[in-house]
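Sequence only, no structure available. Ideas?
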Amino acid sequence: MSSPRASVSRGRASAGDRQVAEPIRILIADDEPALVGALSELLGHEDGLTIVATAGDADEAIELADVSRPDVALVDVKMPAGGGARAARGILIRSPSTRVIALSAFEDRPTVLEMLRAGAVGYLVKGSAAEHIVDSIARVMSGGTSLSTEVVGSIVNELASQLRREEIEEELRTQRRSEIERFLSGEGLRMAFQPIVDLRTRRVVGTEALARFRSLPLRDPTEWFAEAIRLELGVQLELAAIREALRSLERVPPDAYLSVNASHRTAMSPELRVALGDNLSRIVVEITEHEAIEDYDMLMASLAELRASGVRIAIDDAGAGFASLRHTLRLAPDIVKLDISLTRGIDGDRARRALASALISFADEMSITIVAEGIETAEELETLLRLGVRFGQGFHLAEPAFF
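Reply:
I predicted one. Tokens follow.
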């Protein structure tokens, strides 16, 4: 089956600068001996082609590619020892100049894409005409790619679907960025205020400012803050919420404090001190746990400056995870807030009571004030009082309200 194609060969310069035809060296990797024999017979009789090795599994294909450095490797996608994708990756690591063409009885889209991602530059369905195989080898050797017509439609559909998914994702990101920028400008951002009370007297000792966002569809505030972090607008959104909260400071009882939430990044921002204004002795900054803290020393230095100006520091959600306990140990806060996961159902849960009791004992030893969050029943309140908790907040005491 000799062919007149002069392109199915590669050239090398002779001493007289003449191009001498050099055969294309081919490795065949397939676990079907009959197919290997047929391909070897077919390609071995083609002008400009020579078979340098045959392999029956991925491991053997990789090793033989390392030894023989073929120009082209015809690789079965379903061979033993990891399949064609593993073989293709291994071959290209050992012999980077080899051009891999996948061979398969399958033309399903996932198989095609898996091989292309592994580095294959061609994909032929088994049973392709001899001329098509030879043409594909010539095409990839000239720097091109070669896909059987049976798989082109699948690839096009997949790429179209992927592009559409990317377009939709980009549209969503653009919409959400636009919404967050709207919040930053002051539109759609409101602050609700939840009283913090003395559990014995019910006197209001403080108020926590909680951000609320007007947007459709409605999303939990934590989702908006998480989205802002992904868009690198987290600090800006927290600062906007803090500024909005401070506009209502005069409505907080004069002998009570205003508590605002800040991630460690916001706490380290020079803009926070500016945003807090002048009535710093009435401000508590609650350090939230949105992200891991990379530099405690820098955070501690920033908090020390805030403390020097009169601001008190609280650790939010203590007991919810290891990080909040670590914050408590490293940052020596003025206030520790017991997370709702500890207070909810504490009256009927011995483990919760034991952990809360340990935190309360630690706080007493360190002269730290404990505030219990999420008190929703009289039974929870009574239990916390028996444990020695003096301050708290929650729906049982007062719901968040807009001033």
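Residues 10-157 form a domain with the Rossmann fold fold (CATH 3.40.50.2300).
Hope that gets you unstuck.
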